[in-house]
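Recall that a protein's primary structure is simply its ordered list of amino acids. Everything else, from secondary elements to tertiary packing, is in principle encoded there. The following example makes that idea concrete.
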Amino acid sequence: MASSDDISTRPRVLILGGGFAGVGAAQKLEHADADVVLVDRHEYHTFQPLLYQLATGLLEVTAVGHSLRDLVGHHDNTTIHRGTVSSVDLAAREARFEDLPPMTYDYLVLGVGAEVNFFGTEGATEHAFPMYTLPHAVNLKDHLLERWDAVDHDPRLIEDGALNVVVVGGGPTGVETAGAIAELYRSVFAKDYPSIGQDEARVILVEAGPELFSMFKPKLREYATKALTERTVEVKTGETVAAVASNRVTLESGEVIKAHTLVWGAGLQGNHFVQSLDLELERGKRIGVGDDLTLPGHPEVYVVGDVAAIYDTKREQVLPQLGSVALQSGEHAGETIARRIAGKKTKPFAYKDKGTMAAIGRRAACVEFLAGRTMTGAKAQVAWATVHLALLPTNEDRSKAVVDWVGAALTHQRVGRFTVGKT
């Protein structure tokens, strides 16, 4: 295996970020005549679309997180380092890190991802539970379990809203999380804590816009609202959160909700590191790129994944921050660099849209394909599962997910609904 410190005449490809984009780039560079170095602040890759299933005990950590060394560390030309990038000198082609020596590069793949955008909401940074990283999902799962256990010991906490959950955001993250929490409460915790009445626990979804799923056709928006309501989720549209405390959520309308849990699924922005690059950033603090995903003025730098503002000429809009966009953009960057090194022709990036989809709960999902055809219910859930299984990085991950999904469907149990706790 190559080392980033070895003296080599081969070009060095530095990949910053081990998410969908970074892993996709590294996999396409496996056979390139180059020294590939992948740096991420963690040693694992996170399958973000399934974080809500980890948070609600449907999947275990090992089905959502996977070692980067298992994914790409076996490539003969690839080295993996755990480190946090602090700056990039674009003119000198050098990246600097908080915990590693500086590294020069011939090609740079910038896939550092995004971070949660709280839009300046008072108290959200301190008290909200985001859903973007593996620790976020684990923290939420542990917190939910701890609250139910606390109420089991002291039922007086119910009156203070200990079991109530407010989910912010009417997009896929918020809807999927709200539906999963409601099913966890009604199907699992109802049996685990029989002395606690289910009418004592509320799940409330708050969306600033007039409807859920603004990216879907109206009939799918209506379907999502109906499916959530059937699962006892209270849907509040046209509402925004003004402030968050440890046991209260205050809406802009003045309504105060007693709740010890607020899940934030309302938006992302470019990684704070990107904001320090002195580049002109587009909406959502993302970096604009050319049609080949290179940074304007720097053909050796590829910007991919959630941090890139990739304009789709077919749709005449910037592509959303989805796992499929990140993976395909990373793969394009890796393949293009490999072709450039080999002296072959390259081509612009073209996103292959498999449709927009979201799973609301058991036998409830909605899908809108590129041609406009829609699907709901159990068939849509199968389509959703098929696409997400294809995105999972290994066959082992796919097997784990299938076993857990089938088990939950047959038994209504959750394999990961426990926390280790502190000793």
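The longest helix spans residues 172-192. The CA atoms of residues 106 and 377 lie 49 Å apart.
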